[in-house]
Amino acid sequence: MSDRETEVQQDGPVIRDKRRIDPDTYEVRRAPAAPGPSEAASAGGAPVVDGQAVPSEELAKAQTALAERTADLQRLQAEYVNYKRRVDRDRDVSRAAGVEGVLRDLLSVLDDVGSARLHEELSPGFKAVADELERVAGKYGLESFGEKGDPFNPHIHEALLHAHADGISGPTCVEILQPGYRIKDKVIRPARVAVAEPSEPSASATASTEADAPAGSEQTGADGVHAPDTGSESGPADESGEQAS
Prior knowledge:
The chain is 41% helix and 18% strand. The protein is of the alpha+beta class. Among the domains are: 56-140; 143-199, Nucleotide Exchange Factor Grpe, Chain A, domain 2, CATH 2.30.22.10. A hairpin with a 2-residue loop joins strand 1 (48-49) and strand 2. Mean pLDDT is 76; it is low at 1-9, 40-44, 202-207 and 215-245.
């Protein structure tokens, strides 16, 4: 009689004990091991899936299809990542363009505010509004530039007036007619300025300098040899002529 089954041989029926708990030891009886895949495999040695033998050709086709689907999934993943990056970049560009458009429309208002502040025409109430407007514009990256005495730069300055002045070494902004504005490194309006250049020597000063140069009594020939002045000297032929007379 085994641990799993108890057979009682009588004149009547056979009784088998299938209880999972042994009534004597009160331990769980172990179930018999199920046959492994190798035991259930067919005689030809084909792989077994879900208890059924699968031909090698079908397995190879399935593996090929799996590789193709995996490659398709990886390609779709890469396309999605690129699409997301492009959308994020376009969103940033659109946002920057919208902010720039609004700030461009506010430039004329900021010019009026600056002119009123220059002439001290801002009332206390309106001054608070003007300060808040400039603060919000600066929050979005707008900043003004252009100061008297700055070197003239054609990339950020627009010359409306031109003159000459002393005491400068190069083209200089001597007057800011209208300030310029930029957002970060992008100039949205150049500063309109009056430009002065160093004074040039006058023509009369040049003429007087030439007139003060000493006049030479000798003439220089083409070959660089000084030719004597023969107008005040008489030659030997003249002396001989006077003696003959």
